[in-house]
Structures are given as C-alpha cells and as structure tokens.
Amino acid sequence: MTARGNGSSDRKQPEQKQRGPVVLRREYRNESSTTDQRLLDSRGPSDWVHTDPWRVLRIQAEFVEGFGMLAELPRAVTVFGSARTSRDHPEYAQGQELGAALAEAGFAVITGGGPGVMEAANKGCSEAGGLSVGLGIELPFEQGLNDWVDVGINFRYFFARKTMFVKYSQAFVCLPGGFGTLDELFEALTLVQTKKVTKFPVVLLGSEYWSGLYDWIAGTVHENGKVGDKDLSLLHVTDDVDDAVKIVQEAWRAWEEAH
C-alpha cells in the first residue's frame, strides 16, 4: 500500500537542534555553546547588547514602563510646540496660559518634557495645581526633562513614546513648532482619519503661524482630492486659549456620551 499525503515518507529527515522555539537544521545546528552557557558565562564581547533581539527587549521594557506609569493617569491633553521658543517669547506665555487652563478644566497636561513651549505648558499646569507629565526622548544633544514635570519618563524610541502620547491623551493642542510638532500633528490626523482613534480633536493654536499650512491643505491637498471634506474638519485653528480648551471639553463630553 502506498503512503498518501506524505511525499517525503522515505526521505531521511535532516539532523536538527532545538533552541527554545527555534529549529536549527543542517550546518546551522552546529553551535559551540548553549543559551544557558552564554547567559551564565560573563566572559566574551559585549556586542550582543547592540543586536536586534536585545533591542526587542528594550523596546518591550519601554512599553511596559510607559503603560505602568500612565495607566492611572486622569484624562489628559498633549501639548506640542517648539523646544526653541525662548521664555520671553509670547508663545511661551501662551503655552503657560494653556497649561493652566487645561489644569483648571480638570485635564492633566502631557508634553515632550523638553524646554520651550513644552516647559511653558508643564509650568502652567503645575502652578495651577494640575498633573504635569513629560515624556522625554534620547537625543544626540542632551536635553533632559524640564523642572516643571511632576511625572516623567525618558524613552529611547520615538515610536514607543508616540504610542504613549496617543493612548493617554484625549486631544492634541499644537503651538508653533518644527519638524517634531509637524510629525506628531500629521500622525494624529492620520490616526483619526483612519479611525484608529476616535473623538480626538487636533487644535492648532496660533492662526498666524498655522494658517499657511491649513490653507495649503484646504486649497491644494483638498482641491486635488487627496483628502475629503470630513478630513478638513479634523483641524481646528484658533488664537484663543479658552476656545482651544472648549474644543477639548466638547470632544471629551462627546466621547463620554458614546461610552
């Protein structure tokens, strides 16, 4: 009787070695040591800490630390803006006013934890008695968390940090900023557009700075059919801090009613 369903019944199975869930066959099974041996042997080069498998563990650790620290965070708003804004600039004063207004409205304030507008928002929130949060990032030039952060964590990886901004915020408010602010702005818009997050307003505070960008989106991107009418409504441009907070509050109430 001929065996069916297994065309290789007479074929000799290759020699193999099991390394946890990994199967090594043929010449790839020849290893000079075991996983336990490599773990317990302190000698040898340290290059392994820079390999991708080890990076996966560091990435995992960043998510665990972030989720653990922020899990009990009250409702919060992330404020973005330039780290280059000086303390005597009107945008710094506006950031501080915004941080205070959000705290008084019952929101924690999350920033990137750096200087400039981020420091201003953290300061305004902290002085108003709110919870001031900073999510820093490792950069080639040292920056560190500003002095007005009550709860802070530094990340190695941008994508882990970005997840925390979105997961634990009910809204983004963007003051004038550079590439980092634009990056976060368009990522938020993409997530809302694709319904990865819902009831998530994005407010652009400072019409003189943001109107050129908005006009280009409305007049070029929209006119060429690259975004729809509903997509334009995702952006709110204002000069008024109270108006920005009102938009955030209305979105929060709408979210609560939906849940």
TrEMBL record:
NCBIfam families: Rossman fold protein, TIGR00730 family. The keyword Lipid metabolism does not apply. Residues 1-45 are annotated as: Disordered. Keywords: Cytokinin biosynthesis, Hydrolase. Belongs to the LOG family. It comes from the Bacteria. This is Cytokinin riboside 5'-monophosphate phosphoribohydrolase. Its EC number is 3.2.2.n1. It holds the Pfam family Lysine_decarbox. It catalyses: N(6)-(dimethylallyl)adenosine 5'-phosphate + H2O = N(6)-dimethylallyladenine + D-ribose 5-phosphate; 9-ribosyl-trans-zeatin 5'-phosphate + H2O = trans-zeatin + D-ribose 5-phosphate. It comes from Pseudonocardia yunnanensis. Residues 9-30 have a biased composition (Basic and acidic residues). Signal peptide: none annotated.
